[in-house]
């Protein structure tokens, strides 16, 4: 994780280290360790950090310069969810039917 992005995003989001630590259910010193690069969070914790700061994990990792999360499940319509579920089941024709309203 890019320590500069974590700190900048936290500050831009209006969180202190203490506030972010509380949201993540960890001690403040852990945030400090991440921001200094002493310790790197694991995958699950990275995902929690990204969700808490409303940015993509790819942005925090330095894999993308776009901080916007690519897809948020909580703002999908029922139709969008149904299409995704059909695609995940390997049923592209069902997804097409849903999209076309048929």
Protein described:
The chain has 102 residues and is mainly α. It contains seven helices and no strands. It is elongated.
Write a compact overview of the structure shown:
The protein has helices at residues 3-12, 17-24, 28-36, 43-53, 57-61, 78-88, 92-100.
Helical residue percent band: 55-70%
Cα end-to-end separation = 45 Å
Largest sheet: none
CATH class categorisation of the largest domain: Mainly Alpha
CATH H-level superfamily title of the largest domain: lambda repressor-like DNA-binding domains
Portion in beta strands = under 5%
The shape, in one word, is: elongated
- The poorly predicted ranges are none
Summed up, the domain count is 2
Cα Rg: 18 Å
SSE string, helix = H, strand = E?
HHHHHHH
Number of strands: 0
Per-chain topology:
Blueprint: H1 3-12, H2 17-24, H3 28-36, H4 43-53, H5 57-61, H6 78-88, H7 92-100
Helix pairs in contact: 2-3, 6-7
Provide tags for this entry.
434 Repressor (Amino-terminal Domain), 102 residues, 2 domains
